[in-house]
Design brief:
Number of domains: 2
Order of helices and strands: HHEEEHEHEHEEEHEHEHEEHH
CATH topology of the largest domain: D-Maltodextrin-Binding Protein, domain 2
Helix content: 25-40%
Radius of gyration: 19 Å
CATH class of the largest domain: Alpha Beta
Number of strands: 12
Strand content: 15-25%
Number of helices: 10
Structural class: alpha/beta
Largest sheet: 5 strands, mixed
Shape: globular
């Protein structure tokens, strides 16, 4: 499990302030002057981000992006990406930030910066009740579907390298392949298991076999955009403390954020003007 300590939050804020050169502060000002915040986001990630042609965007990440843009005085502009495109889209400056169930991993930290965690995601293995699966060792020889360039995919390659891993570019393609019976074991976020069971007939229902890992989810920011990162860190801290981010998460996931993301108290932080 992960936790956010008072010292960690204060250190992150101080480092952000110390590391912010004037040139990058200007980049933050350019975003504000543009009147919009370009947010890289996945379409079709249950409970996090889904686009309905008539109703628009829904999900906890979509609502988080709207609230962040609103508090910056900007209009949110969602840039639809696949799992594999999230970081490249940010680095190529086709988006200003990533809000897309992006878990913090050492590999990603080599490429981009992260805000304080604002949510969490539980990655699980799902399969029919008839499958005897209790851990990675039981996946040997089995066909397993997973998203490409994802944290759960990396875990499978590390701990279940005897499995037959089949990768898909995005969550809709992964779920569609499972529904069409291309494989019987799936690695995905917990909300996707719930969605699949709503779509599957009774005789094909699946269950959660084990949790691969629960990750903190954070906003992805370019490393050089230190002023923007500092503002977002203060915003996350404030909205965890006042309950706004927890309410957004609970509304879409049916439960509150874990205590590791939503501690009883957080140090007060003033968002830079």
């Amino acid at each position: 499990m992960f936790s956010i300590s008072r010292a960690w939050i204060l250190a992150a804020s101080l480092l952000g302030l110390l590391a912010a050169p004037v040139a990058h502060a200007d980049q933050f000002e350019q975003i504000r002057k543009s009147g919009k915040l370009r947010i890289a986001i996945i379409n079709g990630l249950p409970s996090f981000s889904q686009l309905d042609p008539s109703l628009g965007w829904s999900g906890s990440d979509a609502d988080t992006g709207r609230q962040l843009a609103r508090d910056l005085g900007l209009k949110p502009e969602f840039v639809v990406v696949s799992n594999a495109e999230r970081i490249t889209t940010l680095l190529e400056r086709r988006a200003d930030i990533i809000i897309s169930a992006l878990s913090i991993t050492p590999t990603r930290e080599q490429q981009i910066a992260f805000s304080l965690p604002y949510a969490s995601i539980a990655l699980v293995i799902g399969a029919p009740p008839t499958e005897a699966i209790n851990g990675y060792r039981d996946l040997a020889g089995k066909r397993i579907g997973v998203g490409r360039n994802t944290s759960d995919g990396a875990l499978l390659k590390q701990y279940a390298n005897q499995a037959r891993i089949i990768e898909f570019d995005d969550e809709p393609a992964l779920l569609k392949a499972f529904l069409s019976q291309q494989f019987s074991v799936i690695s995905c976020q917990r909300a996707s298991i719930t969605l699949l069971n709503r779509l599957l007939p009774a005789q094909r229902q699946i269950e959660e076999k084990f949790i691969q890992r629960e990750y903190p989810v954070a906003i992805g920011i370019r490393k050089e955009d230190a002023s923007l990162r500092n503002w977002i860190n203060a915003w996350v801290g404030e909205n965890l403390r006042n309950g706004q981010l927890n309410e957004i998460f609970r509304r879409h996931h049916g439960h509150s954020l874990p205590d590791s993301v939503l501690p009883a108290t957080l140090p007060k932080a003033r968002m830079p003007s």
